[in-house]
Amino acid sequence: MDESRIRTHINPLIGKRIARHLTIADVEAMQDDVAKGKTGKPRTGERGGKATGGRGVAARCLTTIQAILGHAKHKGLLAEHPTKGAKKLAGNKRTRRLSVAEIETLGKAMVYAEQQGVSPTGIAVIRLLLLTGYRREEGQAMQREWVNPMGGFVAFPDTKTGEQVRAIGPEAIKVIVAQPQIVGNPYVFAATTGDGPFTAVSACLQRVCGYAGIKGVTPHVLRHTFASIAAELGFSELTIRAMLGHASQNVTQDYIHVDEALKLAVRRTSDEITKLLAQGAAKLDRLRLVADSDEG
């Protein structure tokens, strides 16, 4: 999706600009133009998609260009992030989250999907996002050197809201540690070819949810689900905002060293979701046992 966004919306508007000369005004103007539909395109051919623009697409375009520039700064290609602080348009608020029953069903479907040949790396990213509440980009582009298993945190050099240190529970650490290391590839979830990260998590999630019969699920829904389970466990809104890495109320600064109370909240939430996923997977095992006994 990022590649399509760059090709369809970003490149036509600012693709010829020199990165270090970009300003906040430039990328906000790009965002406004996408929102107004200036980069919209009609459907082409039988399989061609229709690009309409809109506020949601515009906001995601800004997120994409900010991530690209942030990565360039991290790699030393830019001395400073030239557009840090650009204001993203508010889109339609997404409140979809998985119910307890749906989490169990997803756990069952994840096991089944891997048996059907769905990428185990993609399934691992799905599990990590659900166990951490991390954003899709944070999970699938996570690098090994950012992760401190003993300290129970991930030090992100650049996120949607800047540099952050975020708590992570033992169950999520297990997912990370289980991933094979590819020589020359710094990412936890490595692409099958090249030295980049795995990027097909959304497609994998759709396949898994197809097996589960669950509709309307995106990586962002997994983030909402993590927050919802944390709320059900009794954690305050302030704590949940810190768990999710929201910085709009300066919450992150209060936990810059990731205090033990926040680690406990993340661990309990992650453990609860792990339990629900396992309960779903166990149901698939029981179904298998019944089927085997019927055949016998």
UniProtKB/TrEMBL annotation:
Keyword Acyltransferase in annotation: no
Domain annotation Tyr recombinase: ranges: 93-268
Spans annotated as Disordered: 33-53
Sorted UniProt keywords: DNA integration, DNA recombination, DNA-binding
Gene Ontology MF term list: DNA binding
GO terms (BP aspect): DNA integration; DNA recombination
One Pfam family of this chain: Phage_integrase
Entry's family note: Belongs to the 'phage' integrase family.
Protein name: Integrase
